[in-house]
Amino acid sequence: MLLTDDILDNIVTQTNLYAAQYISTHNLPPRSRVHGWSREPFTREELQKFIALIIIMGLVNLPTIEDHWVTTWPYSSEACSKVLSRDRFSLIM
């Protein structure tokens, strides 16, 4: 793969550091989804899933990013939701 494990691990480490810094410097509401980051840090496996979804979204052109998680016609597909939840994808984005 073009991205080695070392590169992926560095992206994950820096993303988690940024998230921790963001959480500590912003006055977020207690129910903010961003707090989920401290409960469930980003992992290499999750980064690989995220990259795969970005590639899929480039191949399957839908009007909005959220449409990739729609379960009703005309855009219904479970492909993305089986890989990563819409909320987690948005949080990573």
UniProtKB/TrEMBL annotation:
Q: Where does the PiggyBac transposable element-derived protein domain lie?
A: 1-93
Output the superkingdom of the source species: Eukaryota
InterPro entries noted in UniProt: PGBD (IPR029526)
**Know the name of this protein?**
PiggyBac transposable element-derived protein domain-containing protein
Q: What is the lineage of its organism?
A: Eukaryota, Metazoa, Porifera, Demospongiae, Heteroscleromorpha
